[in-house]
Amino acid sequence: MTKRVLIADDDDDALSGLANLLTGLGHQVAQARAGLRRSTWRGNSRPMW
Predict the structure, then answer these.
(1) Which range of residues forms the domain containing residue 35?
(2) Would you say residue 11 lies in a domain?
């Protein structure tokens, strides 16, 4: 079952590594590197759970 996942981290290497792992497992991944983008993304998306 595909899940939509938001990954928020200030460490670019950790962010891209986890995103690649989850994408490889078949999940839809959105990435946010800055606090403002995190809160903006959260406000524009509805959770799947």
Answers:
(1) 4-44
(2) yes
Biggest CA–CA distance in the chain, Å, is 30
Model pTM score: 0.67
Give tens-digit pLDDT for 27-43.
999 998 865 555 555 55
The DSSP result for the chain, as a single string, is ---EEEEE-S-HHHHHHHHHHHHHTT-EEEEE-SHHHHHHHHHH-----
Highest mean pLDDT: which of 11-15, 16-20, 43-47? Answer: 16-20
The tally of domains found in the chain comes to 1
